[in-house]
């Protein structure tokens, strides 16, 4: 039926263009079902792009070449100037979705984006103040660790909903496949987007705080002596012994025998992505520190976030550049 309908539409379009150019369209699309509307638009698209195979091949070639060149440029930029690359990528990750969601009137995303931006802006403001308040490092690590957990859980739930929908489990609850899939994909996007954005903001704040507080030195040479009962991340005293169970948080001892507050070292390793001792630079044994496998940093999750960072921040820019080239060359 779809093939017959398409031929009929092509015929209408052909006759309309040659013999009845000034007459209005003879059928009302608004009265058609969604499936029939899609067929009409599909047929019109084929009629519009008929005999344009050479132009389409040229556009595809431009797209492939641009993607390859852009990838090489981004890789070289990241290797040679990582700070400027991370800063520009973070800014685009923050702004690009705002443009598209505002244009499409996705108010639910705009609401969550606004709440995230307000809280993160306040946390970032606290992290960049000099002198740094003694409570700021713990506040920063707690917020971004909480955001990391929420985004990870949201992504897992969204992925589970998508898989359940693919296996037809949604039919047991009488939920339409398109509704279940939209819900799952939305949760998956929320989790991944705010996960990667939170990690990038956390790394920026961690780098800034590490240079102003505690015992961390980027050069590797410590400038202050670390006492046995002081946390090298926040510089505050350790009140709970390693062997004791804390009411709010526990105390962790690394393989180098340096001790830290639970929230500080978790934020340092998981959120700040620094898998080394903040004082002596010895590599952190994450398996020993996080005995529960669900608490360990997930390498595949981190790689997925890196891929999403490229997809959200740079892919729209590259596609826009390709469209500009096609416009200049007169390709449609």
Account of the protein in words:
The chain is mostly helical. Among the domains are: 85-213, no CATH class; 222-296, Zinc/RING finger domain, C3HC4 (zinc finger) (Herpes Virus-1). 64% of the residues lie in helices and 2% in strands. It has helices spanning 2-18, 34-48, 53-80, 82-104, 107-127, 136-166, 177-210, 262-271, 286-289, 299-313, 315-328, and strands spanning 251-253, 259-261. The chain has a two-stranded antiparallel ribbon with strand order 1-2. Strand 1 and strand 2 (259-261) form a beta hairpin. Helix 1 packs across helix 2 (34-48), helix 4 packs antiparallel against helix 7 and helix 5 (107-127) runs antiparallel to helix 6 (136-166). Mean pLDDT is 76; it is low at 1-25 and 293-297. One of its GO terms (biological process) is neuronal action potential.
Features:
about 325 residues; mainly alpha; Herpes Virus-1; two-stranded antiparallel sheet; 11 helices; about 0% strand; elongated; disordered N terminus; zinc ion binding
Q: In percent, how much strand structure appears in the residues?
A: under 5%
Neighbour order of strands in the largest sheet? 1-2
Write down the Rg.
27 Å
What is the succession of H and E elements? HHHHHHHEEHHHH
Helix content: 55-70%
Number of helices, where a helix is a run of at least 4 consecutive DSSP H or I residues? 11
Q: Please report the distance between the alpha carbons of the first and last residues.
A: 30 Å
Quick one: how many beta strands? 2
Given the helix and strand composition, which structural class is it? mainly alpha
Mean pLDDT rating: 76
Judging from the principal axes of the Cα atoms, what is the shape? Answer: elongated
Point out poorly predicted stretches. Answer: 1-25, 293-297
Largest sheet: 2 strands, antiparallel
Membrane topology: Multi-pass membrane protein
Domain RING-type: 231-281
Transmembrane segments: 59-77, 84-100, 106-125, 146-173
Subcellular location: Membrane
């Amino acid at each position: 039926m779809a093939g017959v309908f398409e031929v009929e539409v092509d015929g209408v379009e052909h006759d309309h263009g040659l013999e009845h150019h000034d007459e209005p369209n003879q059928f009302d699309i608004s009265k058609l079902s969604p499936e029939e509307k899609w067929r009409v638009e599909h047929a019109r698209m084929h009629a519009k792009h008929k005999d344009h195979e050479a132009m389409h091949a040229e556009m595809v070639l431009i797209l492939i070449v641009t993607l390859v060149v852009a990838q090489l440029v981004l890789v070289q930029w990241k290797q040679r100037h990582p700070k400027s690359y991370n800063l520009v990528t973070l800014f685009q990750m923050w702004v690009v979705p705002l443009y598209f969601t505002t244009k499409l009137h996705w108010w639910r995303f705009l609401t969550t984006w606004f709440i995230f931006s307000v809280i993160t802006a306040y946390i970032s403001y606290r992290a960049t103040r000099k002198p740094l308040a003694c409570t700021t490092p713990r506040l920063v690590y707690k917020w971004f660790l909480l955001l990391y957990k929420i985004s990870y859980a949201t992504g897992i739930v969204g992925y589970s909903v998508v898989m359940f929908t693919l296996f037809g489990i949604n039919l047991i609850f009488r939920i339409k496949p398109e509704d279940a899939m939209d819900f799952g994909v939305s949760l998956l996007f929320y989790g991944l987007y705010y996960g990667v954005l939170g990690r990038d903001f956390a790394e920026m704040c961690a780098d800034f705080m590490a240079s102003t507080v505690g015992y961390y030195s980027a050069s590797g040479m410590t400038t202050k002596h670390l006492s046995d009962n002081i946390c090298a991340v926040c510089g505050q005293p350790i009140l709970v012994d390693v062997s004791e169970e804390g009411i709010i948080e526990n105390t962790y001892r690394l393989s180098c025998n340096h001790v830290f507050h639970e929230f500080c070292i978790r934020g340092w390793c998981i959120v700040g992505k620094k898998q080394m001792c903040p004082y002596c630079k010895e590599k952190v044994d994450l398996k020993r520190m996080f005995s529960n496998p669900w608490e360990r940093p997930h390498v595949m999750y981190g790689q997925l976030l890196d891929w999403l960072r490229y997809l959200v921040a740079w892919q729209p820019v590259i596609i826009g550049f390709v469209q500009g080239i096609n416009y200049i060359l007169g390709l449609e």
